[in-house]
Write a structure and sequence with these properties.
Helix content: 55-70%
Strand content: under 5%
Largest sheet: 2 strands, antiparallel
Number of helices: 12
Strand order of the largest sheet: 1-2
Radius of gyration: 26 Å
Distance between the termini: 79 Å
Order of helices and strands: HHHHHHHHEEHHHH
Oligomer: single chain
Structural class: mainly alpha
Length: about 270
């Protein structure tokens, strides 16, 4: 026979416990506790990036009481201020960090918050609005970039041209991020095996450096490299992220389909 135990608590006491942390706690203070008690304590990856996103939230709505995070209007106020001059993907990542902090606060004892504004009928993070990487660098633009490097090899440019020339070629060949490429040292290179090791702490911008990384991934695909291999080379956790990098030009599509049709024609000829 199963026995059931019922624990009865005083409603007034529960209310006092639930609001104990809310009284006098601002959003800035709450985010500081989240960073110290969870991000650092749990050893989350890339705490510096998380800290910078939390800093952005504090700068806009940090002086408000913590329960303001339950109101969609205040969250949207942060987005309106933070959105200016930034890509949608940057705003979404800041929102994702804030959402994680709110969820952490809801399940503390006693809780900092009782609900979250991030739900189906409240604030939603629309990933589809993020800019898709469809920028391709053609041969003429690549040659113009390398030629510009040759023109900046003098003292007036601090002799930056030759090293930038090599870095652009290296980025196209290795698909490195800008930060990864700038931090490569001789000890990271295996000259005999022609390999470059990128330390994990260095992993994670008209023409942006990231477009060169994107172009390198597209060239690998055009050369017949499997998408799973490209995913591992780019360091993506999800293959869907890799797919966003890979765009096919009309000429590449024509060549690929011409090859398919030619192989089918040869197979039909053999069968006949």
């Amino acid at each position: 026979m199963k026995r059931r135990f019922v624990v009865r608590t005083c409603a007034a006491c529960s209310s006092r416990n639930a609001s104990a942390f809310e009284e006098g706690v601002t959003i800035a203070g709450f985010l500081d506790r989240y960073y110290e008690n969870y991000v650092l304590a749990e050893g989350l990856r890339d705490p510096v990036t998380i800290q910078s996103r939390l800093k952005a939230v504090r700068a806009v709505i940090g002086d408000l009481p913590v329960n303001a995070l339950e109101k969609p209007a205040d969250i949207l106020r942060f987005k309106a201020a933070f959105r200016k001059g930034r890509e949608v993907a940057t705003v979404n990542r800041a929102w994702s960090t804030l959402r994680a902090a709110i969820n952490w606060g809801r399940f503390q004892d006693p809780p900092y918050l009782t609900t979250t504004p991030f739900h189906r009928f409240g604030v939603t993070i629309k990933v589809k609005e993020e800019t898709k990487r469809d920028r391709r660098i053609g041969l003429q633009e690549e040659q113009a970039l390398l030629a510009a490097c040759s023109d900046t090899g003098g003292p007036e440019h601090k002799y930056a041209g030759p090293s930038m020339h090599d870095r652009i070629i290296g980025a196209l060949e290795t698909c490195c991020r800008r930060g990864e490429m700038l931090r490569i040292q001789n000890r990271h290179i295996d000259w005999e095996r022609h390999q470059i090791a990128i330390p994990g702490r260095h992993a994670k911008d008209d023409l942006h450096w990231h477009d060169i990384r994107h172009e390198g991934a597209c060239r690998l695909l055009a050369d017949g490299v499997d998408i799973r291999t490209i995913q591992l080379m780019l360091g993506h956790a999800d293959i869907k992220q890799t797919q966003r990098y890979l765009n096919i030009t009309d000429e590449e599509l024509r060549k690929a389909m011409t090859g398919v049709w030619e192989r089918r024609r040869q197979l039909r000829a053999v069968s006949q």
